């Protein structure tokens, strides 16, 4: 007798879609066989002829805990995750206090335990003066994050010598460096020019102070530094055509990149209507940039989609463009936006499984996740490709309660989400009794 059987499904396996059933025992996939051969089970789920994807893995979320639980926390944030088909998330270190010491990492672990509904991992932060902390790190983190520009939170590391030293330490340990690449000196230059001009500073002009060259120049320099010491480099929220070209040119097994939904599904054209809500770092970009990002996803230059879920309350967004907080909530809309696109673009369900599950598991070396395969964790999401529904802010679980995609009609939504074989989201209902675990790394 198995614990769980899922029948009547199109399984999205690494080698392609097959019509078959899944057998799950002790949270792991133990068999993939034709429905006619499925065993008896404690729970039998009829997938209704829908696709079953490997649970989505989001290597880039800001859960805001500790420090800003008025905006989000692991309880609400992980509800948003399961409602969006995510079964594993990695939290960014720009919390308050930041995750830049082994002591703070241990405290965050305690805080998250017993709260998260999804499995999870943590990014660590580098600062100007925590190289000793890096030396003492063990391998149980997703990566070390380098904020080379100032953004939400207090983290910034601007001195290339320190970056170089930190890269050397991480290279020695085989740990990944994740970068937020925007050149702060350039940003300051154009920002000050704009302020001096006396012009009214609109959200669009603000976005231009962080133009493409700021990201590309920073990435160019960081790729050079990474290659000179052999550290593995992961580019967070790649947003410009110039960065796509750079990553394509230097791509190897030590260089990976992610793109966020807002850089695919929002752009400079939306800035006027969104006002201060459009603020995000790096900023929204042009149509040409968005096209280049899609090309990068299709040709393998960009490895993955990462939501960069960065919730802020309306009151933090409804300020002038300088004072407004940067970032968007994304966990509940990323998968529907992608599924919707499979109906009218080159995007396929198989590619979604690669970009949102298999590749993040590979790059961040997560054990037993990212594939529907025997022996892997039964992290699964059943999606209804034909359900058509608008994004409604009232239905969101994120504490911030708004979405930049509100009102968009999307076709393709998650129906049921399983974390290690346990149903945590069932079409609008969340089961909170089972908690997530920290992932293991290989
Ligand atoms: O827009 C952003 N929001 N960019 C970042 O780098 C940080 C993030 C946040 O934490 O809100
Ligand atoms: Zn981020």
- The CATH class of the largest domain is Alpha Beta
What structural class results from the helix and strand content?
alpha/beta
Ligands in the model, by name, code or SMILES, are: (4S)-2,6-dioxohexahydropyrimidine-4-carboxylic acid, zinc ion
List segments where confidence is low: pLDDT < 50 over at least 5 consecutive residues: none
Q: Might you state the CATH topology name of the largest domain?
A: TIM Barrel
**Approximately what portion of the residues adopt beta-strand conformation?**
15-25%
Helix content class: 25-40%
The CATH architecture name of the largest domain reads Alpha-Beta Barrel
**Globular, elongated, flat, extended or rod-shaped: what is the shape?**
globular
Rounded mean pLDDT is 97
The tally of structural domains comes to 2
CATH homology superfamily name of the largest domain: Metal-dependent hydrolases
Number of helices: 14
- Amino- and carboxy-terminal Cα gap: 31 Å
The rounded Rg comes to 21 Å
Q: Please give the number of β-strands.
A: 17
**Main β-sheet: number of strands, strand sense, barrel status?**
9 strands, mixed
């Amino acid at each position: 007798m198995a614990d769980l059987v899922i029948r009547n499904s199109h399984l999205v396996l690494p080698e392609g879609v097959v019509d078959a059933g899944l057998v799950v025992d002790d949270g792991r996939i133990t068999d993939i066989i034709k429905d006619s051969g499925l065993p008896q089970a404690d729970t039998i789920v009829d997938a209704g002829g829908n696709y079953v994807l490997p649970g989505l893995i989001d290597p880039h979320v800001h859960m805001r805990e500790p420090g800003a639980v008025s905006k989000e926390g692991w309880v609400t944030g992980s509800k948003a995750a399961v409602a969006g088909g995510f079964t594993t998330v990695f939290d960014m270190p720009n919390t308050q206090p930041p995750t830049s010491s082994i002591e703070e990492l241990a405290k965050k672990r305690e805080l998250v335990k017993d709260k998260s509904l999804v499995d999870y991992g943590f990014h660590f932060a580098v600062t100007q003066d925590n190289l000793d902390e890096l030396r003492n790190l063990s391998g149980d983190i997703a990566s070390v994050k380098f904020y080379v520009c100032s953004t939400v939170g207090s983290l910034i590391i601007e001195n290339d010598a320190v970056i170089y030293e930190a890269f050397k330490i991480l290279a020695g340990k085989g740990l990944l460096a994740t970068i937020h690449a925007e050149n702060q000196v350039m940003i300051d230059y154009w920002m000050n020019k704009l302020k001096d001009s006396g012009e009214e500073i609109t959200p669009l002009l603000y976005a231009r102070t962080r133009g493409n060259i700021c990201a590309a120049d920073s990435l160019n320099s960081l790729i050079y530094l990474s290659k000179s010491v052999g550290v593995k480099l992961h580019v967070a929220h790649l947003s410009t055509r110039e960065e796509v070209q750079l990553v394509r040119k230097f791509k190897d097994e030590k260089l990976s990149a992610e793109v966020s939904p807002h850089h695919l599904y929002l752009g400079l054209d939306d800035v006027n209507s969104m006002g201060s809500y459009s603020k995000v770092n790096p900023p929204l970009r042009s149509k040409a940039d968005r096209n280049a990002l899609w090309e990068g996803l299709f040709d393998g230059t960009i490895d993955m989609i990462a939501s960069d879920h960065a919730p802020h309350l309306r009151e933090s967004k409804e300020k002038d463009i300088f004072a407004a907080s940067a970032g968007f909530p994304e966990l509940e809309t990323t998968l529907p936006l992608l599924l919707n696109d499979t109906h009218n673009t080159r995007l396929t369900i198989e590619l979604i499984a690669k970009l949102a599950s298999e590749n993040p598991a590979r790059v961040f070396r997560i054990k037993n996740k990212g594939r529907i395969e025997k022996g892997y964790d039964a992290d699964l999401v059943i999606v209804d490709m034909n359900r058509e529904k608008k994004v409604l802010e009232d239905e969101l679980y994120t504490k911030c309660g708004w979405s930049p995609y509100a009102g968009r009609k999307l076709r393709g939504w998650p129906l049921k989400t399983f974390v290690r074989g346990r149903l945590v989201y069932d079409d609008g209902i969340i089961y909170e009794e089972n908690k997530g675990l920290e992932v293991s790394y290989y």
